[in-house]
Amino acid sequence: MMKNLLTYNLFLWIFLCCSSCSSKKDETTQKKHPNILWIVSDDLGTDLGCYGNSLVKTPHLDQLAKQSILFTNMHSVTAVCSPNRSSLITGVYPTSIDCHQHRTQFKKPLPDSIRPITDYLKKAGYFVSNGDSKNKSKKGKTDYNFIHNSDSLFDGTHWSQRKKGQPFFAQIQIYNPHRPFKRDTLNPINPDFIQLPPYYPNHKLAQKDWAYYLESVQLVDREVGKILKDLENDGLLDNTIIFFFGDQGRPHLRSKQFLYDGGINTPLLIKGIKNKKGIVDTQLVSTVDIPAMTLALANISIPNYIAGLNILDSTLSRNHIFSMRDRRDETVDRIRAIRTQNFKYIKNYYPNRPYTQPNVYKKFQYPMLTLMRVLSKQKLLTPEQAQFLATNRPKEELYDLKNDPFELYNLAEISQFQTQKDELDSLLKYYVKKYDQGVYPEPKSETDYASKIMQERWIKRMKKRGLSPNITDEEYLEYFEKNY
Prior knowledge:
Largest sheet: 8 strands, mixed
Shape: globular
Strand order of the largest sheet: 4-3-5-1-6-7-2-8
Structural class: alpha/beta
Number of strands: 12
Oligomer: single chain
CATH class of the domain at 33-319: Alpha Beta
Order of helices and strands: HEHEHHEEHEHEHEEHEEEHHHEHHH
Helix content: 25-40%
CATH topology of the domain at 33-319: Alkaline Phosphatase, subunit A
Number of helices: 14
CATH superfamily of the domain at 33-319: Alkaline Phosphatase, subunit A
């Protein structure tokens, strides 16, 4: 009897020791390699309650902001999905890896010297996943402009698929508020309450379009709430570093695809940084910084080629942002910008072309474009509104962001601002020389393919609407006013 008791106690002691060692090992792993989650919303401007918008209901994000660092000056490298997502997964500017054109058909592999950040995280022992916000077993959006295999980039679609005790780096992709907008029937927004930026006409169709966008933002908030609840249910909410951000700014005219703040300014919340809770940070941040921050938080050395900065390191900070715009679908363009806290300098490489070059996606999805074209013909736009529909554009644009936050008044030719313009022009030339060489012109096979695909898409989609592909602006506006 005594012998059996001693044997039992010995086994119990061994079991407890092993459990303790395993627990300590998990704790050590957690401290060295914390769980990290990116929640990425598609086409999201800073139109949240926690960013000062009083019309939208975003309670989950507002609560998350109270537990996070809220960055007011986060800007994307580009204002469209695929180049910016290519930058997010690599930590370099899209032009450095020939990923700057939107959705190239004839993709190339990454250079041998550059790897997706998932490679470094996997090597450090992380379970790496990318999933859809509505379905844990569905792969999330990648949209990378280089040859890749999602199965080799990621281990799965959700953190719940990892081994016990294994740290995770997870991405969850939220489609909203990408067009077409989803309506929020529970909390509809009255278009009459919408106050539009001054570069849009105060028209009922424009107000309705913006209201639908805000309703779609509210749906983003609900999806975030569900994600946070899943973390809480799995006992992970308090030991996971959470990034919430948009892949670029608003899906509106003069915003998405362009380098004004409406197109590149997006929210950034980071929860889980020690002693950093409920803080509003006004420093400049670029989406190219997110990979650098992620690797640093995972205690992984940041490769020298990474273009971003770990701005969570108090010894590092930005005094400017570099952004770019190139071909978007069938529309060939090239724009570069430098943004500081006080000024933005934009260089247009095709000044002989209008801002509103033909673009199937925008003509199909943006009622505001058709509205403004009709109002322009009727001479009912203000000078500030009409300039975006001009037949050409200036070579250079300079905006005083403190006094002109909507970027309406170009100061590039005003003599008293030549010092600021020359300084930013020199800085832009440095970035172009370092990151932007040998990438033009794009092969004709790419532009021809994009034109063919988008024209076929236009005909097919207009047929589905019961409309002629040769519809006039006036007829198209009438359609939107009746059916939108």
